[in-house]
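Sample pair:
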Amino acid sequence: MPVLSLTDLTISFSGPAVLENANLHVDRGERVCILGRNGAGKSTLLKVVSGQYEANSGSVAFPEGGRATCLSQEIPEDIDATVGEIVASGFGAEGEALMALQTNQPYAHASLDPERQWKMERRIESVLKELHLEADMPFNTLSGGLKRRALLGKAIVYEPAVLLLDEPTNHLDIDSILWLETFLLASRLTLLFVTHDRAFLKKLATRIVEVDRGQLHSFRCDYPTYLQRKEELQATEERQRATFDKKLAQEEAWLRKGIKARRTRNEGRVKALEEMRKQRRAWRQSAGSASFSLQQKKHSGAKVITAKQASAAAGGRQVLNSFDLQIMRGDRIGIIGPNGSGKTTLLRLLLGRLEPHSGSVERGTKLQVAYFDQMRALLDDSKTVFENVADGNESVSINGKSRHVMTYLQDFLFTPNKARASLKTLSGGERNRLLLAKLFTQPANLLVLDEPTNDLDAETLDLLEELIMEFDGTLLLVSHDRDFLESTITSLIVLQKDGQVTEHPGGYQDWATRAVQKASPLAKPVSGKNWKERKPRFSNKQREELAALPERIETLDTRKEEIVGTLANPATYQGDSEEVVRLKDELREIDEALDQAYLRWDELERLLKSITSQSG
């Protein structure tokens, strides 16, 4: 018997139904991940299951009894309560009565009988112990990760039939995410969850349910198998629709010819055609694929940012201890660390938006920065989606070509109606897509991304990864998304809560393996077993980069010889003097690029040799 049954569920607000006569049955112990495009209705579905929203029709039932509870995505502010009180509030009115009894406060509702009180107290103690929390700790003094842990206690203390998680890893640091993964895997909770974090999804999901065009499609498999099956289904659907469209076109042509179509013996064919037309109109087309690209500015100088004994302070507190850092053109650097360790502060320091408390930070020449701000400060809530992209202009210039804003927004999956809507109506994922749309109107050679993956759907994440990998400028990326980091960076800056800043070559998994071996408190998960079994490795991205370097060096050398030959020709100086200046500038840039390429080649060769010797 399932623990959750959705039967003929229809949810509609305005426009096409979010869900239309959809069905889903979840068995005890399943961990079901809900996937779908931003705006497809994933969070709405969770709200209906939890009882926050009512469906237009159909039913939500818990055949074995109980109810669903939800782990809040947002952490409430200014709560004057202890952790124990937060967890007890998961019992609702009974929890309030229990707290009143324990603190000798008057309470208007019915009192608890001693047996019920005893059971509730034992359950709260059990949950606090399970979550490694202290009952008397004030909630507002906790870190973000511990606050989320206390809210998890509130969600599970009632022993729900189904626990609902809506983007549970948002705003959590990697250590907290690893703890949550470990806890949920060890528990026997039945989960229905939405996440953009593919590492979290791969680790937890026993089943995938996709929200697509008003229906729920179930895949009883892991995430990689789902991707393969999804691709096969899309190819089959395209073939079927092509066949249908061909048949419809033939029938329309037959009717236009007027071949006695209205004779009695042909009425069936006419009715069949009308039915085909209705079916074609009823199709809800998929939203298509997001399609966007970065405008790449002319190369910056070889040295992008140089920090010497730089430190940062805020509110009278030292946030970052003194550190040295050299960022060269083409570097792809990830920045990780616990919440509150100063990742955004580091970005502001490196970009010149914050003066160093000591030491110096120098920025190179010809820098053009595109900055994806974690606080989304570039967006104006008082404006429409359209107005936000180009500050009210009708067109934007993309790679030298003028494009109408409405057409440009379609590349980011915004329909004309959505483009005219207020920014306040957008979901978190749609806001992030809009910020990317605004950001990518700017030519850049230094791309700075502060938590860009929050709330983005899996397909947009994949596209953003590809775009970043094609970008040949310099990348600074703050993220807690382990898969995203592994796919896009070649080195890491790791921050600790004590202000320490260290640099590590290689990708995220390379660092995590070394960190676990050194028993780093930041990287070590609660269980640690699977991580310790991993061997150091040279990432695929690093292998691709190393393999491409000889060809890049050869191309640069060839162009250098061409320029040297041109500059050696006296006739060159009898023409346009600006052309001579341009060639000399290009020659200087090529020399810098060659130096950087040889340095990077040597660095990767040494890293590969080191990892190979460790593995051997």
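Residues 4-225 form a domain with the Rossmann fold fold (CATH 3.40.50.300).
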